[in-house]
Description:
It comes from Pseudooceanicola algae. The protein is 45% helix and 24% strand. By secondary structure, it is α+β, with helices and mostly antiparallel strands. It has 3 domains: 4-56, no CATH class; 62-102, no CATH class; 117-255, 2-Layer Sandwich (Phosphorylase Kinase, domain 1), CATH 3.30.200.100. The strands form 2 sheets. It has a 7-stranded antiparallel beta sheet. The chain is elongated.
Amino acid sequence: MRGTEEKLSAFLDGELTEAERLEVEAALARDPALQAELETLMAADAGARDVFDAMLEDPVPLGLADAIRTAPDPSAEPAANRNGPASGWRWGAVAAACLLIGASGGYFTGTSQGVEVASARDWLTDIADYHRVYAAQDRHLVEVPAAEAPHIQTWLTASIGADVAIPDLTSQGLTFQGARLLVAAGRPVSQLIYTDADNRVVALCQIQTDAPRHALLEQRMDAFDMVTWGGNGANFVIIGDAGREDLRAVAEAAQIQV
């Protein structure tokens, strides 16, 4: 059959004419190899859908969230322009950006048996949930106070399996208050807690990983902004209230100290 893969793909998508569909069905009935090829395509299609569904659940990068929030409402465009080529291209580009950024949202943990893949949302969702609870605390904001900084470093380093340092962020207007030990994605995570002059909480969280180093990435999850990066055997995230304009600067200051 000429153009076999293309015709099978069209068959799966329901894009064949009635005559073409019958031709493919007859060919499948008499050719086991062709049936096997169809099953391979079906498995690949199912896998692609699973990946796409997972990408839709990834945290939204901060820049994309701002772009979507400030983008013009297409329904407000004149009817003559709403479905025109330019409008379709613009909104298609936004959708493509969502896919590209979502695909880069995961992190990888190497193992001696291969590569274990863990989605960023596995631990960042947990971090956001913890921050929502602990940032609202006053008397019980931290588990171990800043006065026990040497103990905090020893305790958290042993607990998470990666060196934990306490960055000095006073130049960013933040005061170290203490630390907690969390569990995210089923793994121990260190949480260093800072407050600014308005008692708003910013936290630095760290999880052990063998992932390669990666640069700062800004994203938004629920009511929080996050800046993540990786290096020195760990992944890091700085988290604070959505709309903090200094969060990247805070992350840059922390990054060079951990």
